[in-house]
Amino acid sequence: MNMKDLNLDMTAFWMPFTNNRQFKSSPRLLVKAEGMHYTSSDNRQILDGTAGLWCVNAGHCRTEIVEAIRQQAGEMDFAPTFQMGHPKAFEAAAKIAEITPQGLDRVFFTNSGSESVDTALKIALAYHRARGEGQRTRLIGRERGYHGVGFGGISVGGISPNRKAYSGQLLPAVDHLPHTLNIKEAAFTKGQPTWGAHLADELERIVTLHDASTIAAVIVEPLAGSTGVLVPPQGYLQKLREICDKHGILLIFDEVITGLGRLGKPFAAQYFGVTPDIITMAKGVNNAAVPMGAVAVKTSVHDTIVDAGNTGAIEFFHGYTYSGHPLAAAAACAALDVYKNDGLFERAAKLAPHFEKSIHGLRDLPNVVDIRNLGMVGGIELSTRDGKPGARAHEIFVKCFEKGALIRYTGDILAFSPPLIISEAQIDELFGIVAQAIRETA
What we know:
The protein is of the alpha/beta class and 442 residues long. The chain is 39% helix and 16% strand. The protein has helices at 3-6, 20-25, 51-54, 63-75, 87-99, 113-130, 151-156, 160-164, 183-186, 202-210, 236-247, 268-272, 299-308, 326-341, 344-360, 391-403, 424-439, and strands spanning 30-34, 37-40, 45-48, 106-110, 138-142, 174-177, 215-220, 250-254, 278-281, 293-297, 368-374, 377-382, 405-406, 408-410, 413-416. It has a seven-stranded mixed sheet with strand order 4-10-9-8-7-5-6, sandwiched between helices.
């Protein structure tokens, strides 16, 4: 199959987070997927080094998940979850609650990470109002944080290009912690840096500035992925938890990327031993087979909101037409069974040392200024060409695709998050291709 055979008119599709003019002048198309590989439109096998988009953790087109979707589609395509219900949504929620940190056993379904974040922020505001502290409306995010593209998410997020076009309409009561990346102090760290825990103390400064009584929640990614793999310093998340507890502030972990095995545990909260009040998830929750997200909430937070509602009335005025969609829920049930039955979280933990060794083997290549990793996620930061930010990484991204590997880049940072079914040999193959592309790029 080639581009001519496809006979595609690319005019209508306005592609997301894409240089549309550049892409459509030289498109890169994927037409099939199985296991660790995509098939390109020119019939080449492409090793998936990013689990699609941080999401296909169990590998592509898993038979168990495909059949679950097929069966559900033939049985019932859609059912409302406003004042109604269907069994698969409850089953999926129960399966998620089995693997979340203890106490976070109430699950609200969404359709994406962006919706999960906006839902979590609303839950935080509703919680404080229900407990009689409705003045707690301020939300604290972090610089370089990525929390999706809803207005709530970009408000608490800290990636400038995502914010600047909409700056006049972002949420007003928002502040930001500093990010934790410091290449000067922690370049080429394997795992968590020892430098940087003190950056959590900035939350105390923000509390002093605004007063704790005005702050509803702090939201952070335990490990920031989309901004270029920012690994939390040792002790940093523990400090955030202590400060939030001290001041009655909810702590939200955005685990859209880190959730469902990426760090070798169901959630990063369990890996780091820090339990937040709310966890957002999406992507891997059903192996990305059908759009789905979810928010796991502490029982006490859920009960506070629900018990404050008037008898017979809706307690939480929020939701989506497709919350707990039957096909998405069926896919989630099947995916969660695959993770468990195949021991994929444990497999990720066992593969992590080899992944770390392989990625750090590239540290002496031209233009590499830092390498960061934790679990089955890694980033390679490159020096930036004068006046052309992102150009070097884009060129390497294209070369990798031409050589048979799909990677991701953001700015001049290459990012890697392969499916958890990857083998050690395939890890070596992936970083071998990346090394070739880096050497060939000035």
